[in-house]
Amino acid sequence: MKKLVSALCIFTILLSSLTGCSKKQESGAWDGSYITDSRFLLNTVVALTIYDKQDPVILEEAFKECANYETIFSRTLPTSELYKLNARTLPMKDGKYEVSDDLAALIEKAIYYSKLSNGAFDLTVAPVSSLWDFTSAEQDKALPDNTALKEGLKHINYNKVHIEGNNVWFDDDHTTLDLGAIAKGYIADRLKDFFLEKGVKSAMINLGGNVLCVGQKPDGAAFKVGVQKPFADRNETCAIMDLKDKSVVSSGIYERYITVDGKNYHHILNPKTGYPYDNNLVAVTIISNESVDGDGLSTSSFALGLEKGLELIDSLEDVEAVFITDDYNLHYSKGFKETIKITEQ
Question: What is the pTM of this model?
Answer without folding.
Answer: 0.90
